[in-house]
Amino acid sequence: MAFGINRSELNEWKSQVEKGEIAFLTHFWIDPRFRNSHAVTKAGCSDVGKLIRWGESYGLKKEWIHDYKNLPHYDLMGELQIRVLKDHGLSSHIKKFNLEKKPADH
Predict the structure, then answer these.
(1) Cα separation values, 67 from 31, 42, 44, 49, Å
(2) How far apart are CA 44 and CA 63, in angstroms?
């Protein structure tokens, strides 16, 4: 389940992805398989080759791309998520979603 974003933020991410830009969307997320993560960042791009090359620069495999509703993206969590957000000047995502807090701090 995703929450912590509004329709406008989601639509902006979709628009950027569809234009072939590398776009980022962070939201709160609950999944019992990932008990140590409370948020995920989706790094998406409709140009899959571009997305693969971008992912390789972070050690991501093309097999990890999700193509949900024709919006190809990687799901980023944990330390890699924080590194990517910092690298792309998105510290506002880190602050908004308390990503540098340890799970026990929540």
Answers:
(1) 19, 11, 9, 13
(2) 14
DSSP string, 64-84: G-EEETTEEEEEE-HHHHHHH
The separation between CA 54 and the C-alpha centre of its own chain, rounded to angstroms, equals 13
Q: Which amino acid is at 88?
A: H
Q: Given strand 23-29, what is the order of strands in its sheet?
A: 2-3, 23-29, 39-44, 71-76, 66-68
> What is the reported pTM?
0.88
> Cβ-count burial of 99 within 10 angstroms (0-12 exposed, 13-18 middle, 19+ buried)?
buried
Mind listing the pLDDT tens digit for each residue in 77-105? 999 999 999 999 999 999 999 998 755 54
Of 38, 31, 45, the C-alpha closest to 88 is: 45
